[in-house]
Each structure stands twice: as C-alpha cells, then as structure tokens.
Amino acid sequence: MRDDRAVNEVIGFVLVFSLVLTTVSLVYGAGFAGLESARDVERVNNAERAFDVLANNFQQMGRGEAPNRATEIKLADAQLTTTAGREMTINATGMNATGAESVAIRYDAPGDTSIVYEHGAVIRTDGDGAVMRREPDFIFEDGNVVVRFIEPRGSNQGVGGSTSTVLVRAERLKSDVLANRDTTSNVTVRLETRPDRAGVWEEYLNESLAAATGGSPTCSRSTIDSDTTEVVCFDDTADVDRLAVSRVRIRVTLT
Hints:
Layout: H1 2-62, E1 68-74, E2 78-82, E3 86-91, E4 98-102, E5 105-108, E6 113-118, E7 121-126, E8 129-134, E9 138-141, E10 144-153, E11 158-161, E12 165-181, E13 187-193, H2 195-213, E14 218-225, E15 228-235, E16 242-254
Parallel strand pairs: 10-16
Antiparallel strand pairs: 1-12, 2-5, 2-11, 3-4, 3-13, 5-6, 6-7, 7-8, 9-10, 12-16, 13-15, 14-15
C-alpha cells in the first residue's frame, strides 16, 4: 500500500511538473516572439522619427538657417545607403526646364519596410504600399508655385550593422535662384523615383498643382528601367500668378 502511494505521488509530481514546464515554455515562446515583433516595430518607428529630423535639418539648411547639420540614425540590423542621383524638374511657358539631380537616403529594415528621404520628402514603404510621411518644402497654393530643390550629393555610400549608430553629416555648398517669374502657364513638374514610390508622388503632385492653379492637372507614369519610374504632372488649364524656383546643394556623408 505504501509503495502504491509513493508511486502515485511520484507520478503526480511528474505530471504537475510537466504541466508547469509546458505552460512556461508556451508563454515564453509566445511572449518572446511578441516582444521581438514589438521591438522591430519600434525600431522602424524610431528610424522614421529620425528621418523627420533629417528632413527638418535639410529644410533649415535650404532656408539658410544653418550651414551644416548632423543627424543620428540607429541601424539595429538595418542598412542605410545613398542612391544614385535622380532628377526632378519644373518648367512653364517661356522658361527652360530647371531642376536638380539629388541622391536619396534610404533606410532598409529587416523584412520589406524602408524609409526614404527623396526630393525633400520622407516616404515609408511596407511591401507594395507606400505613404508620404512628410511632404517636401514646396508651396503650391492660391496661384503660387514656390519650389526649393534640396539637392543632396554623395551617392553610393552604405553602412550596416546590428547596433551601430550612423551620423548623417550634411554641409551646405551653394544656393542658386533658377527662376522667378510673374504670371505664367503650362506648369509641368517631372521627377524620377522608384516604381514603389511613384504612386504617392503622382498623388502629391496632382493635388498640389490643383491647389496652385485651381485647374485640372494631368499626371502620368512611365518606366525608364526596372529601378526607375518617371512621374509627370502638368496643368495647361489655368495660369499661376507666381513661379519661383531655387536650388540648394548639400554634401552628405555617412559616418
């Protein structure tokens, strides 16, 4: 009788211990996966906030409020690169096309999420979707079109790592007034971007030109190559009272 009782107690202990161990393992596994997911989301959100600071710093340099700026971006298993230069131009009746050829600064997180500073805007892409988190420092309203091209230079740089922090150093090089006109018409904006960001640029330019001219702009996209799409928006239905274009060149270094 005592032997049977001892065996039952041992079996009961083993069952209870197995149940506790299984429960702890399940909770640990699910909780750890959830913590990793939350950590990855927060890393990308932190990078997005850093790009907003970056865009603001470049905007201040473009307005002549600072000769240089530096922005910290934490990588955490991500990659930070500068692309080859892509063009953005604007022209209207009676003036030659004026513009800039600027590099984009791109943050690629593990998975399919990226954040890009391009043509003065901050754009986030997740898979096939893209959203413009910060618009460029342009004015399209009430008959006015004022475009300040921020032209970062310094292509084909790249930094990657698990815990490293990259310092994006920017130095203002020169500023030029490209156009300053009174009433004009047939305003056309043309830019190059990646195919996954073309849709948000088309939407932005279409709404912006409509706000400036009160007309009905026409936008289109065309493929240049597998990595580049050209977006063109023009409005030949209404005039603008003022068109001003300037360009600020900035040297960008990743350290």
